[in-house]
């Protein structure tokens, strides 16, 4: 056997060692985290990064509503907004409806000395028509529901300033219908404004108390008859106190009291001739009686309109009282409903009531109506909800009712009650 000389073996070993050095050690976990933190710092708000903290969300709300009134010989054509009287957003009957397509853009507050953010909500569909008080049923109409700046003030803990246009403080029911237990709204939503424009201070010193006070232009676009212009020549004021989730033997309580005082001149920016006063009392009880699936709520609302000019009609008043309930069978199935009563004091020339008088008659000095709903909700998809609702409206007032006068030249289509069935589908993101 022939063996290579020793010098050749040594040279070969040294060559192999030089060509195959030991691999470098992998970076530690702390080093990798430090590298990521450095990259995040390069796109921080302090570096003027655009779009930081901005969130985009929204929802699509569609429905089909059937009015069960017999219209074989009389009645308006399908799609008339006059059939479902006493309603706020679900006006159409026997019709597929685009109720709302809403897009929200929100910027979170940062941790600077004066943390600032903003929120903007734009909506299209039937909801936009109602909020804009428009008689034109145009699904393509765009309505700016909210657009305000929200700034934390370092005066005291939990104090912030909102400036711009924001949803009114009045009302238990949410402006975003899918967040409510029922699809339809009570009469209280009719006698409240939609949004307010001005400034608002919000103070939340702890998790169980929140107060809000605002100075605003006045009524804004949903009742009574307001135009696209601000006809107010003086300011209006709003305030709300919320007590949040107080535990007791009866359940978890969240009461609130809301007030509004101001004016809304109709058609002319010359006189403060129309003063509106409102008060709203709300109580929410979850885990009622210690029963986990049961939630209850109650709301009383009062509105008084005064015409201060000598030739104006007498004051108009409205009172509503509503009871709400919801039973959660499980995380995806719930049953809910409400019963609501409303009473209106009318003048000979004007009214807040939605009830329609018969031909050749006027609104009575007072009228009242009732509503009852039963709603079944299914949350069987992620970020989606399917609801079925039956609603019954009725009135004891003799000369007014639900429907319309002389539809298409036919006799009056006015009745003392109405029943509707609705299917509602909402997807949010």
What does this structure look like?
This protein is mainly beta. The strands form two sheets. Strands 1-2-3-4-5-6-7-8-10-11-12-13-14-16-17-20 form a 16-stranded antiparallel barrel. The longest helix is centred in the first third of the chain and has 14 residues. It has a single domain, classed as Beta Barrel (Porin), CATH 2.40.160.10. Helix content is 8%, strand content 47%. About 9% of the residues have low confidence. The chain has three helices and 20 strands.
CATH architecture: Beta Barrel
**Strand content of the residues, in percent?**
over 45%
Side by side, the strands of the main sheet go: 1-2-3-4-5-6-7-8-10-11-12-13-14-16-17-20
Number of strands: 20
Structural class by SSE content: mainly beta
Cα shape? globular
Gyration radius, rounded: 30 Å
Helical amount: under 10%
- End-to-end gap: 81 Å
Average of the residue pLDDT scores: 81
Extract low-pLDDT stretches.
Answer: 6-19, 45-51, 72-81, 222-228
CATH superfamily: Porin
Biggest sheet descriptor: 16 strands, antiparallel, barrel
Element-level helix/strand string: HHEEEHEEEEEEEEEEEEEEEEE
CATH topology: Porin
Number of domains: 1
Q: Which CATH first-tier class would you pick?
A: Mainly Beta
